[in-house]
């Protein structure tokens, strides 16, 4: 039987037009007190608005409070770009998409503690560094996706090491390049299709708030062309990947990049089978086995029934 083919994914937009680099906007070291208080509320905000172009008619759609859903916000991709400052400033592409995706994982169960002491500051410096070593291409043929990697200062994390980890994941033979439909190239200037940022919990909250999401200092998010990886989650992992940092890191990057490629969520296809990388595995494996890769060792796409 012919192996299952991945669902058709829309080609990413052409993002080569000049514009303002989201990395040049400033994130203040001291955050707004009202925002800071709201982060302890233990919930995420989902908000959106639709303005009707009719005089005296304005409809505002506001939102759903809940855990672990995702929201679409109208407007240009990256139009609500978050504030951050990078050491190397460049021109950035104008957005070409009509919708921006915002997504976050739910808070993990209590009682997860690292086996060794780790340094997780509440806030970093708010300034991001792009490590050298760009212009590496992974995969052959298909749509070329350009990406940048940035690490916030003050985290005691090596930007070059984080970039190598992201590179390793995107270059893996069971990663997204296995389809032959996409390849990746790390760059340090525009044009780029997405940027992966490692940030402190406080800066993650600030960046994700630009997309209407309260990440509570605990979780990751993705919106526009940004994938924001929370240092807390990166180091403490989740219950199903306890003791397996490499696998959890792969799941995080592959899941969010999968959305950037146009894939939606899937769920477990059957007991004992590998969980699709597009499954929100932190909610539970639902009978599947933990799996951080989109393809199996034979090059077959791992998927399951679609879910919202």
Description:
With 308 residues, this protein is α/β, with parallel strands linked by helices. The chain has one domain (22-255). It has helices at 33-38, 159-171, 201-209, 231-236, 245-260; strands at residues 44-45, 50-54, 57-59, 65-66, 70-74, 85-86, 99-104, 127-129, 136-138, 143-152, 182-186, 194-199, 221-223, 226-230. Strands 5, 6, 7, 8, 9, 10, 11, 12, 13 and 14 form a 10-stranded mixed beta sheet that branches. A two-stranded antiparallel sheet has the order 1-4. Helix 2 crosses helix 5 (245-260). The model is unreliable at 1-83, 87-102 and 106-111 (pLDDT under 50).
Roughly what is the average pLDDT, rounded to an integer?
73
The number of helical runs is 5
State Rg: 19 Å
Q: How many domain units?
A: 1
Largest sheet geometry: 10 strands, mixed
* Secondary-structure element order, N to C: HEEEEEEEEEEHEEHEEHH
Kindly, what is the distance between the CA atoms of the first and last residues, rounded to a whole number of angstroms?
Answer: 29 Å
Low-confidence stretches: 1-83, 87-102, 106-111
Number of strands: 14
Transmembrane segments: 47-72
Biased composition (Pro residues): 1-15
InterPro entries: DUF3152
Domain DUF3152: 120-286
């Amino acid at each position: 039987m012919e192996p299952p083919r991945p669902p058709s994914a829309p080609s990413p937009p052409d993002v080569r037009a000049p514009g303002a680099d989201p990395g040049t906007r400033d994130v203040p070291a001291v955050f707004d007190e009202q925002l800071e208080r709201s982060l302890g509320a233990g919930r995420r905000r989902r908000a959106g608005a639709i303005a009707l172009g009719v005089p005296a008619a304005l409809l505002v759609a506001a939102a759903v409070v809940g855990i672990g859903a995702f929201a679409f916000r109208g407007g240009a991709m990256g139009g609500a770009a978050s504030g951050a400052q990078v050491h190397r400033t460049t021109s950035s592409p104008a957005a070409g998409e009509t919708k921006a995706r915002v997504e976050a994982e739910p808070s993990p169960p209590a009682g997860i503690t690292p086996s060794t002491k780790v340094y997780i500051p509440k806030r970093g410096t708010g300034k991001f560094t792009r490590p050298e070593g760009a212009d590496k291409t992974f995969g052959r043929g298909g749509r070329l996706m350009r990406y940048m990697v940035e690490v916030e200062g003050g985290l005691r994390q090596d930007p070059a090491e984080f970039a190598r980890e992201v590179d390793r994941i995107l270059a893996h033979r069971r990663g997204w390049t296995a389809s032959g439909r996409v390849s990746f190239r790390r760059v340090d200037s525009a044009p780029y299709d997405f940027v992966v940022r490692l940030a402190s919990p406080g800066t993650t909250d600030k960046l994700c708030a630009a997309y209407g999401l309260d990440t509570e200092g605990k979780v990751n998010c993705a919106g526009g062309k940004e994938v924001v990886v929370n240092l807390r989650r990166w180091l403490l992992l989740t219950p199903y990947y306890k003791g397996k940092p490499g696998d959890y890191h792969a799941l995080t990057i592959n899941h969010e990049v999968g959305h950037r490629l146009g894939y939606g969520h899937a769920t477990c296809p059957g007991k004992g089978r590998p969980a699709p990388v597009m499954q929100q595995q932190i909610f539970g494996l639902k009978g599947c086995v933990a799996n951080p890769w989109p393809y199996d060792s034979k090059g077959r796409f791992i998927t399951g029934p679609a879910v919202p």
